[in-house]
Amino acid sequence: MFAARRAFSGALQTRAFSASARDLSKVTVLGAAGGIGQPLSLLLKLNPRVTDLALYDIRMAPGVAADVSHINTKSKVTGYDPTPSGLAAALNGAEVVLIPAGVPRKPGMTRDDLFNTNASIVRDLAKAAAASAPDANILVISNPVNSTVPIVAEVFKKAGVYNPKRLFGVTTLDVVRASRFVSEIKGSDPADENIVVVGGHSGVTIVPLFSQSSHPDLVGNADLLKRVQFGGDEVVQAKDGAGSATLSMAMAGARFAESLLKAAQGEKGVIEPTFVDSPLYKDQGIEFFASQVELGPNGAEKILPVGKIDAAEQTLLDACLSDLKKNIAKGVAFVAENPGKDL
Ligand SMILES: NC(=O)c1ccc[n+]([C@@H]2O[C@H](COP(=O)([O-])OP(=O)(O)OC[C@H]3O[C@@H](n4cnc5c(N)ncnc54)[C@H](O)[C@@H]3O)[C@@H](O)[C@H]2O)c1
Ligand SMILES: O=C(O)C[C@H](O)C(=O)O
């Protein structure tokens, strides 16, 4: 155990020393005291690429910050009060803003059932971000992602600061799950399983493309498909009313933030799946779509095409696109009909 701990801290130190002064990165978490926010803040504190960690929530962010700040890595941690000026200060100068603020599901609910509560939370946080961190990379975790991402886009458009390359719906958990579930079937190491998942982040909009993996035989595996599309429900049911995935989501969110920072600091070939403003299906009226995206200093540098897929996968994709169109339209309509208060 001690050897493992030494190896881990050694790896952190090597990376800490390799970061240069120009790589100062402020990362802000909005919803930092929640089930996702707390472990996400912990993982960001362990990341040497993060030099300034800003934590905001409507409750307990200073407490979470005090706790996390005792971890002996170099970054500065600040918890902000739940006031407009606290929120503005948390956002000011941020390079990456992660948003896990909002309510999670209970058994029997769909992600869309969260819309009524989370849409206005995300809209108001997006307004604050548009005002105080207009150039930040915004990573939306709050559900329903298929609608909350368009909400952020509409708010930024209204504020005149929308940059489609810097807005991301975090769908990383879908590929994390897919690689893990495949490894359980194949007896392999999940680190070796690169499963592309496209579409969106709920039910049938989650489309794994096993034909593009090293296991095309898995295309017809209905149980596996169900686990990937409804993995979130497994956790919601197991937690039995106490929330949804938090720990695996924190890992997935921290991975995406790390990839963005790596790419911003000049690493080439950093590719992550994410739900972005995408040209891929715009001709069908679908403005956002999750696919493999190459990240770079400007955010989303290159949106990779879906590529060749199996006929059965095409059927899944058709169902996805039909749902996705409605989810996106719902987010856009929400902001038009409920502009909210000026900041
Ligand atoms: N994208 C994904 O893959 C994914 C995965 C898991 C969960 N989620 C979603 O993430 C969200 C959060 O889940 P959780 O389990 O952390 O919930 P949680 O209830 O444990 O935490 C949410 C936090 O948000 C805070 N909050 C609420 N309104 C706020 C506001 N206006 N400003 C700042 N903070 C605010 C709450 O005080 C709370 O601390 C949910 O919507 C959930 O569905 C998404
Ligand atoms: O399932 C949920 O509601 C949370 C999250 O979107 C997940 O995929 O775990």
Automatic annotation (TrEMBL):
Keyword Oxidoreductase recorded: yes
Entry keyword Ribonucleoprotein: no
Sites where the protein binds substrate: 105, 111, 143, 177
GO molecular function: L-malate dehydrogenase (NAD+) activity
Domain Lactate/malate dehydrogenase N-terminal stretches: 26-169
GO cellular component, one term: mitochondrion
UniProt catalytic activity: (S)-malate + NAD(+) = oxaloacetate + NADH + H(+)
Top EC category: oxidoreductase
One record GO biological process: malate metabolic process
Cited Pfam families: Ldh_1_C, Ldh_1_N
EC number: 1.1.1.37
Transmembrane regions listed in the UniProt entry: none
Active site: 201 (proton acceptor)
Residues reported in the UniProt entry to bind NAD(+): 31-37, 57, 118, 141-143, 249
Keywords: NAD, Oxidoreductase, Tricarboxylic acid cycle
NCBIfam families xrefs: MDH_euk_gproteo (TIGR01772)
PANTHER family hit by this protein: MALATE AND LACTATE DEHYDROGENASE, MALATE DEHYDROGENASE, MITOCHONDRIAL
Family designation: Belongs to the LDH/MDH superfamily. MDH type 1 family.
Quaternary organization: Homodimer.
Protein name per its UniProtKB record: Malate dehydrogenase
Species assigned in the record: Oidiodendron maius (strain Zn)
